[in-house]
């Protein structure tokens, strides 16, 4: 009986963590700050290229793509249910299987 209680407690704990990760989102202020930092970085890089009189296109394109990639990864981590990075259901499935095995005994 104690094994069943432990397994049930594990299911509740894992479910609580998953629900919290789905419902907790980045505040809008943080997203706006990220956009501001990216825009300011690109502006400073463009200003420096204008002052020096030479523009290295590949460097600017790479910089813009890296900033875009970082922003997309941050946004994708903020939405664990959809997107490229998804939360696995394996932990809940394994706990349910353990509960069923303990209950069968």
Task: Describe it.
The longest helix has 25 residues, at 28-52. Helix content is 80%, strand content 0%. It has 2 domains: 1-25 and 89-105; 26-78. The chain contains 4 helices and no strands. It starts with a helix and ends with a helix. The protein is mainly α and 105 residues long. It is rod-shaped and about 80 Å long.
Compact summary:
By secondary structure, the protein is mainly alpha-helical. It folds into 2 domains: 1-25 and 89-105; 26-78.
What's the layout of helices and strands?
Layout: H1 2-23, H2 28-52, H3 57-78, H4 90-104
Helix pairs in contact: 1-4, 2-3
Residue-averaged pLDDT, rounded?
81
Q: What is the H/E order?
A: HHHH
Characterize the overall form: rod-shaped
Structural class: mainly alpha
Q: Residue ranges: pLDDT <50 for 5 or more in a row?
A: none
Alpha-carbon distance between the two ends: 10 Å
Question: Proportion of β residues?
Answer: under 5%
- Integer tally of domains: 2
The beta-strand count equals 0
Percent range of helical residues: over 70%
Largest sheet: none
Number of helices: 4
CA gyration radius, whole angstroms: 23 Å
């Amino acid at each position: 009986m104690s094994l069943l209680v432990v397994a049930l407690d594990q299911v509740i704990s894992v479910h609580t963590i998953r629900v919290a990760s789905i419902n907790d989102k980045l505040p809008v202020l943080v997203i706006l700050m990220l956009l501001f930092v990216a825009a300011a970085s690109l502006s400073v890089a463009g200003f420096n290229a204008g002052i020096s009189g030479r523009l290295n296109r590949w460097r600017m394109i790479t910089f813009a793509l890296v900033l875009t990639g970082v922003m997309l990864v941050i946004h994708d981590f903020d939405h664990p249910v959809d997107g490229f990075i998804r939360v696995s259901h394996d932990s809940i499935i394994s706990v349910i299987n353990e509960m069923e095995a303990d209950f069968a005994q």
